[in-house]
Amino acid sequence: MVAEVLVLVALPLLLAVAAGWDLASFTIPNFLSLALLALFAVFAVAAHLSLPAIGWHFLAGFAGLFIGFALFALGWIGGGDAKLFAAVTLWLGFHDMAPYALLASVFGGVLTLGLMLMRQCPLPDALARQGWITRLHDARSGIPYGVALAAGAFALLPSTEIFRLAATV
């Protein structure tokens, strides 16, 4: 039951908060990535993961951190995005890492194109009074990639190994 709640409620909730925070402020606080890390430890115990399985998940998380920071160094994503990507890959493991990266990339492309199109249109006065919408509309602003990372995880989650594990415990 605990594993199910973590996968079906806690993980999506933290991802939604990260996406919303990134959308509103172009930042993802470290406490969200740390919470995902801590909750994975609880999930590993609740799902009765073996030590080798836990090790592989942590190795996937480190690989995700390496990939994320490489993308950060290239200026393609922010530091919070890199840490969020690592936290999600910790949960998903190597088995679901590549499909997740692909889905997050597709969602990121759609988000980027959508924002580029939106930024070409004048912002209505009613929306221009909202600071976060004004920042989002500003062509000099970046892309809140945490939204794409969360969307990729949401789309993939029902077909993941952790989803099946949570359902069988």
Describe the structure.
80% of the residues lie in helices and 0% in strands. The protein has one domain. The protein has eight helices and no strands. The protein is elongated, with a radius of gyration of 17 Å.
Using only C-alpha atoms, the radius of gyration works out to 17 Å
Total number of β-strand segments? 0
Report the span from N to C terminus: 7 Å
Task: Determine the number of helices (DSSP H or I, runs of at least 4 residues).
Answer: 8
Overall geometry: elongated
Helix content: over 70%
Query: Runs with pLDDT <50, length 5+?
Result: none
Strand content: under 5%
Query: Would you tell me the overall average pLDDT?
Result: 95
Summary tags:
single chain, 169 residues, elongated, 8 helices, 0% strand, mainly alpha
Element layout with pairings:
Layout: H1 2-25, H2 30-46, H3 51-73, H4 79-120, H5 125-128, H6 131-137, H7 146-156, H8 161-168
